[in-house]
Amino acid sequence: xxxxxxxxxxxxxLNIVADISQLLGRWSASNQDLLSxxxxxxxxxxxxxxxxxxxxxxxxxxxxxxxxxxxxVLGLPHExxxxxxxxxxxxxxxxxxxxxxEHLLAAHQQLMYGLVDDAGQYRNEGVGIYREKQLIHMAPPxxxxxxxxxxxxxxxxxxxxxxxxxxxxxHYEFEFIHPFSDGxxxxxxLWQTLYLCNWQPMFAYLPVETVIKDQQNEYYQALSTSDxxxxxxxxxxxxxxxxxxxxxEVITEQSDQVKVQVSDQVKLLLNWLNNKDPQKLxxxxxxxxxxxxxxxxxxxxxxxxxxxxxxxxxxxxPRSPQQKYYITxxxxxxxx
Length: 336
Hints:
The protein is mostly helical. 61% of the residues lie in helices and 4% in strands. The chain has helices spanning 11-30, 37-54, 61-68, 77-91, 101-111, 145-158, 163-177, 184-199, 208-214, 216-229, 233-261, 264-273, 281-287, 293-306, 329-335, and strands spanning 128-131, 134-138, 310-312, 325-327. 35% of the residues are buried.
């Protein structure tokens, strides 16, 4: 491996990685499904709103939700376009590989469509990053961008660093290179998410951007400190703490949501199905002493399926005569 980003692995960094891994391990052991559909959508919207707000987009969470839902919103046209672009980009995450340069350019094209003339292309001139009219970072020359990005992606492909650490190193190095004329911040956060969700799918819906937005000054300070040190250790530590907070938050939200949304009828269904093999609808109704099929499906089966507390043995054929239902690990968590 030719290129090696400068960084150090401290005990504090290792401890945070261990804590995050432990949280994810407990989560995976207790839930069959990643997150409820409502929480996935809600977190995706929060991610988009926060990432764009860091770049001075003024649309509120409610307005971003409305734009994504296809409703008319009173706002600046370019800010509305940013939301639409970001939503498409995050929805396209499964189609991209984090170590592929062509995919990186395609993502930038998607993210910056209609906002800059050179969307999907590396910058062709020098650029400096300013905060309050003060130059805080002069990016490498434009003629070195392609080489530097290829070196970084090759390192990402071959590194044996823990994915959590590698993703933070990539994020810092990407911002240092500043490969595009605009959109570098949102691209760096998007690509870190892509890399992490290839390791652990939960990260596709982890709103770490909301933590960064709430600690925006600290985010920029960590970048600046790492620049001055020519070493990304400080930034790695900041981002790991942000990831730890986001993981904690989303696990708590999911647990609270399950507890709140489970009705008495669904609890009866889950208790009956617990520790049983998959059962047909008629058998379940008989076991619960229920006779009205439409009411049973409306009050018991449908809400349990919606929250992924039960599942079908033949999900591609919901009306199959052989259809059976069984409790998921998320459903077991409710009754245990």
